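fyi for ur records
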Amino acid sequence: MLLTFQQAKQQMLQRASAIKSLNCEKVSLFDALGRITTEPVMSPINVPSFNNSAMDGYAVRLSDVNQSKLLPIAGIILAGDDISNLNWPQGTCLRIMTGAPVPNDADAVVMQEQTEKSELGITFLNEVKVGDNIRRMGEDIKKDTAVVSKGEKLTIPILSTLATLGISEVLVFKKLKVAILSTGNELTPIGEPLAGNSAIYDSNRFTLKLLLTELNCDIVDLGIISDDPAQIKQALIAASNQADLVITSGGVSVGDADYTKVALEALGKISFWKIAMKPGKPFAFGNIGEALFCGLPGNPVSTLVTFYQLVQPLILALSGVEAPAIDLTFKVSTATNLKKSLGRVDFQRGMLQINAQNELEVSTTGQQGSHMTQSFKQANCFIVLEQDRGNVSKGEQVTVELFNRLLK
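which gave:
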């Protein structure tokens, strides 16, 4: 009996959680984009580090404003000024600029648009409230609090925040090393003339490199391996000696020339090699020595779907990501009929959009064959049809899964 998709995914993630964590390294903030933190990052300072003005305006004491709506200007405070020896007489206000330090005894900053200036001073036109337009020390980030969690992916906004804290280096997991290879006598490298009428281009390995680059992996590219048992076996040994994870494309079905599965059985262990999913039924998972192994089917759509649905979460788990992924699934009505056979969960490519009634609906992108790469061209989501579900009629509710950044 075939494993269900969820059983296969669970087995893969359990294996990932049982593996020793990657080593860590300290890297410059400039080199940390996309990396995964090995420990929480604590703020060394308060942000803001001092009370400062949120506006160009006038610093006032509430008691002075309550006594007179007209106050003379006693001085000016600019961003970067040292006000430790400031002399600020009672019954006056101070001209203050955005980002400038606010005196401790100031109750508010009145924005200049709410004042009138004359030779006698400043008239305040509206009610002044305590705390108006003052950025308080530590109101954004307090010293010694965690600004980044362990296992969090470092994005541009996060790194920008760390830069505001003066942090120049961060401790991260080393990149996951992934070896890739394609198998098949029919494959021709991209850019070379096709070698015969039955030849095809090795697009899967190209696609895998793009996907792995987006996931911030170190890639070991072993190229195209002929349908020769000895060559495939040697390539898998070389891959497992160099990488944490080995990914192949093709050779895991049941054909006479599908030698990858045979070589894997000789070198390592196969946990499973068939899944009740479409596309992607011939998907192999196991290990060669210390390296995990994923054998993806050869059809290009099957390769992309299995990588997205199974290999992507495995890589994130192996890379040290601890934060749960955002759930991008929800129910909508389908605007088209959908063909579906019982027995396998089906990941059809769909287009989610707003209809004339201002409601979300999803439609198929066309033919869904595992060789039909055009099915991804207009797609922005998967239509996930349950294993025990058959054909779907227009108007029925279906589950959609929006593409994450890997396919956008």
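The first helix runs from residue 5 to 18. thats all i got for now
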